[in-house]
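Help wanted!
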Amino acid sequence: MRLLLTTSKGIEDLARAELESLLSNLGILFRVEEKPLGVEGRVLAEVDKAFYTDEKGRKRELSVSAYLNERSRLLHRVIVEIASERFEGIGEEDPERALKRLEEFVSGLPVERYVKTSESFAVRSFRKGEHRITSIDISKTVGKAIFERLEHFGTPRVNLDHPAVIFRAELVGDVFFLGIDTTGDSSLHKRPWRVYDHPAHLKASIANALIELAKPDGGSFIDPFCGSGTIPIELALRGYGGRIIGLEKYRKHLRGAEMNALSAGVLERIEFILGDATRLSEYVDSVDFAVSNLPYGLKIGRKSAIPRLYMDFFSELAKVLEKRGVFITTDKRAIEKAIEENGFDTKHHRLIGHGGLMVHTYVIE
Ligand SMILES: C[S@@+](CC[C@H](N)C(=O)[O-])C[C@H]1O[C@@H](n2cnc3c(N)ncnc32)[C@H](O)[C@@H]1O
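Answered by r_m:
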């Protein structure tokens, strides 16, 4: 079976490492490929069947997709591949011709294996790149092809709001992919624990990517701009044994972070402090790891205040940080100046896709 896994752009390697570790735990054969057919934010896994022994000692098949949906911290979706194909030139093609090609392709696929006649289905599509067709065109065309094929086996049922089976049709550049989205309509990065919605919250998958980059080893850990608590909460949920601190300037967000931590069942594991990160050394004498998504200016109103804020914060950080810091921001110039002028070294830099932007991420020591 082939699984298409989606995640944020720029963290495919970390998602791949997580996937390899999860699949190894199942003791099955697998092959993993980052950015299949050059598509960013995707990892492809070819996996063998997995089995477990039930309480009566019977050997049963284990659903690898359900296992990944439950365990992964970095993935957004787990999609079982039905087929994928490169359609040379589809971008420039006349819309009618392009849709005809997709329709013919889908009509030839054994979709009846994936949806019982008693089950309702819907097609959700995703399109990226230059095309003369829209994602709505793709949903309609693919939906029609699936419907007509299923008619040979019974009376197909479409339910666009609450389908039992979700077909995922993607056209990225000239690559078309059809699969079954086992994750459902809510992406895995939308965590069930989030009861307080911060306007600039970080995706939980990216929070975990930043934690992976920081490689905390059990030492003390702080998010000095913790907002709704995404990073400390995700760290606590990983079973982290060390001290975890979340600092936030605004009471409303700190309360929200506490509510989120309570809902995640980890409130006891995190010390939440109301305070100003530009006075960090007043709250902690020393900390091993600091991981944060910094305020981005646009979100806090006065953009001119950002370079000063970063400079003041990094000068405080220099007094207390023992091991490693990981920071994500859109403001490349302000962070690089603050890192350099406060005596830190950048050990690693990468761009990560967040909210339609590519955001700069730094690992510093
Ligand atoms: C980009 S948000 C962090 C969002 C967080 N990662 C989450 O997922 O909810 C930045 C946060 O820094 C806070 N903040 C701004 N200036 C601060 C300061 N001087 N000290 C501490 N927190 C500050 C803002 O109120 C905001 O909640």
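OP: Thanks! One thing I noticed: The chain is about 30% helix and 30% strand.
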